[in-house]
Design goal:
Helix content is 69%, strand content 0%. It is built from twelve helices and no strands. With 259 residues, it is mainly alpha-helical. It is elongated, with a radius of gyration of 20 Å.
């Protein structure tokens, strides 16, 4: 069966944005769950997720003085999550078109006509990820990094003013990074995969989606954060289910928002 890369015409005009209600989030999640059940991809995420976590944990443990970056690194994976979700968007799109879909189709995105733009936007996310780590390290140096050497990290984290200040500042700055990624990429990656029109057009469409639907899109960000937190609690194993479901659901949210 022929691929569907060219089925959607590219228009010079900006894509129209539909107004949605909070019920659209539930619809997207139910459809995302359905896609996950029909095309399970949790083994792929386990094969990628746990080696990555093990590598980070081992590196930090070996370094000793980099332990303060463990939480920023774990939380920062959400900043590059849209890159990992690209293959899931493709699976959901194939199912919409009635085409066969399996876990191998996650790699079909590499043949997308917009692969150049997708890579460029992915590089932007990677830059933001490393900027976040730099900011987290700077906050640590300005707060707990001033404490005497040999102080127990975990005891000082909640038991000293410097530790509490680091928690507050770190989470505030992390929120800014997460909000920026949410606004700039929630609709842009699916749009590039669906109809190539350039990075600027894709990002502007994502921003307009938030301007037209501020409450539902903000609620979507909170849903994503809550599910990622729940998936991380049992030794990150829940992320093998949460990440694919959120990826599929984001595609279906895009379909409801972008006309």
């Amino acid at each position: 069966m022929a691929e569907v890369w060219t089925t959607t015409a590219v228009s010079a005009a900006e894509p129209a944005i539909r107004r949605i209600g909070l019920d659209a989030l539930g619809i997207a999640l139910r459809r995302g769950w359905s896609d996950f059940l029909e095309t399970p991809t949790q083994l792929i995420f386990l094969c990628v997720l746990y080696p990555a976590i093990g590598l980070v944990a081992g590196t930090l443990a070996a370094g000793g003085n980099a332990m303060h970056l463990f939480y920023p690194m774990a939380a920062g994976f959400a900043l590059v999550g849209p890159i990992a979700a690209l293959g899931l968007y493709e699976i959901s799109r194939r199912r919409e078109w009635g085409q066969p879909a399996n876990w191998r189709n996650v790699f079909d995105v590499l043949r997308s006509p917009a692969i150049g733009e997708i890579v460029a936007l992915g590089v932007v996310l990677l830059v933001m990820f490393f900027l976040w780590l730099w900011a987290a390290d700077a906050i640590w140096r300005a707060t707990m990094g001033r404490l005497p050497a040999g102080v127990d990290f975990w005891a000082a984290l909640t038991g000293t003013p410097e530790g509490r200040r680091m928690i507050l500042l770190g989470n505030l700055v992390g929120f800014v990074f997460a909000a920026a990624v949410l606004v700039l990429t929630t609709m842009s990656f699916p749009l590039l995969l669906d109809r190539d029109g350039g990075v600027v057009r894709a990002v502007s469409t994502s921003v307009r989606a938030f301007m037209v639907n501020p409450v539902p899109m903000t609620a979507w960000g909170l849903v994503v954060a809550a599910l990622l937190l729940l998936g991380s609690i049992p030794l990150f194993v829940g992320l093998a289910v949460v990440l694919p479901v959120l990826g599929h659901a984001t595609w279906h949210l895009y379909r409801q928002v972008v006309a």
